[in-house]
Amino acid sequence: MIVGIVGCGAIANTIVNEIMSEEGIEIKYFYDRDIERAENLAHIANGIAIIKLEDMLDKVDLVVEAASPIALKNIAIPILEKGIDLMVMSVGALMDKEFRENVHNTARKHKAKVYAPSGAIVGLDGIKAASIGKITQASLTTRKAPKSLGREVEEEEILFEGKAHEAVEKFPVNINVAASLSIACNMDIDVKIIVDPKVDRNVHEVLVKGDFGEFRTSSENVPFAANPKTSMLAAFSAIKLLRSFNESFSVGT
Ligand SMILES: NC(=O)C1=CN([C@@H]2O[C@H](COP(=O)(O)OP(=O)(O)OC[C@H]3O[C@@H](n4cnc5c(N)ncnc54)[C@H](O)[C@@H]3O)[C@@H](O)[C@H]2O)C=CC1
Ligand SMILES: O=C([O-])CC(=O)C(=O)O
């Protein structure tokens, strides 16, 4: 499998450092609006930095988007139209219903697949199983340190309380997890975002109720030093999903 990466930041660097050149996965093409970032990562991976997306499209089997929701909106359709699979980290962009439908229809028409790893939250496996019945309630409470949210506060403060579609508009690079949960639950879930000077982790609490009963998950994620908005777990989930394409045994939904 030849892989291209769009967005050469914290997540992409972790993917490359972990996978480098593993049997069956060759991460070869690197694109970033900051060409230096693409060149640095290409150098580490012994790959090729490209200056426009089209330069990788006839050469890859899968593109990993690890850039931003705006980037995803620009690249998704041209990638899928070529029948290339797409792994999406900036899931928040998919809260735009028209865009999501376009992505879905294009993927189906060109026999491409779109994957969204579980990212920084815990519980999507259970939600996927629970969605066989009816899900009646789902919420996410996210607590991050001021530097993760770009705020300066002395006391904990609720920054946002409302629906996921609004949360991803207001905090596009901090709450993609709300979109993953909403898509998995097939509802615009309730979201609360708290800035808390007492925490040094990215904390995500998920509550889901439905026909199956109810569950709560809580993850206290170590953030990347280089980008404290992002949890290391998010990059790990992408790596695990990439590896799963070569595995013959799968556990969990
Ligand atoms: N699904 C999830 O659970 C999670 C998703 N994310 C999202 O994943 C994405 C990547 O995260 P990180 O690696 O932490 O970000 P980062 O900020 O460390 O790296 C992003 C890279 O993408 C590049 N970039 C931004 N916009 C671009 C564009 N339009 N075209 C080309 N390159 C562009 C930037 O120059 C940068 O090098 C972000 O959108 C982030 O919000 C982050 C954490 C969890
Ligand atoms: O990494 C995290 O903790 C969550 C995050 O930034 C996102 O969902 O965009």
UniProtKB/TrEMBL annotation:
Gene3D superfamilies: Dihydrodipicolinate Reductase, domain 2, NAD(P)-binding Rossmann-like Domain
Chain ranges passing through the membrane: none
BP GO annotations: NAD+ biosynthetic process
InterPro entries noted in UniProt: Asp/hSer_DH_NAD-bd, Asp_DH, Asp_DH_arc, Asp_DH_prok, L-Asp_DH, NAD(P)-bd_dom_sf
A UniProt-annotated Pfam family: NAD_binding_3
Active site per UniProt: 204
Residues reported to bind NAD(+): 120, 176
Keywords: NAD, NADP, Oxidoreductase, Pyridine nucleotide biosynthesis
The protein's annotated pathway: Cofactor biosynthesis; NAD(+) biosynthesis; iminoaspartate from L-aspartate (dehydrogenase route): step 1/1
Record field: catalytic activity: L-aspartate + NADP(+) + H2O = oxaloacetate + NH4(+) + NADPH + H(+); L-aspartate + NAD(+) + H2O = oxaloacetate + NH4(+) + NADH + H(+)
GO molecular-function terms, A-Z: aspartate dehydrogenase [NAD(P)+] activity; NAD binding; NADP binding; oxidoreductase activity, acting on the CH-NH2 group of donors, NAD or NADP as acceptor
E.C. numbers: 1.4.1.21
Domain named Aspartate dehydrogenase: residues: 154-239
Described function: Specifically catalyzes the NAD or NADP-dependent dehydrogenation of L-aspartate to iminoaspartate.
Name of the featured protein: L-aspartate dehydrogenase
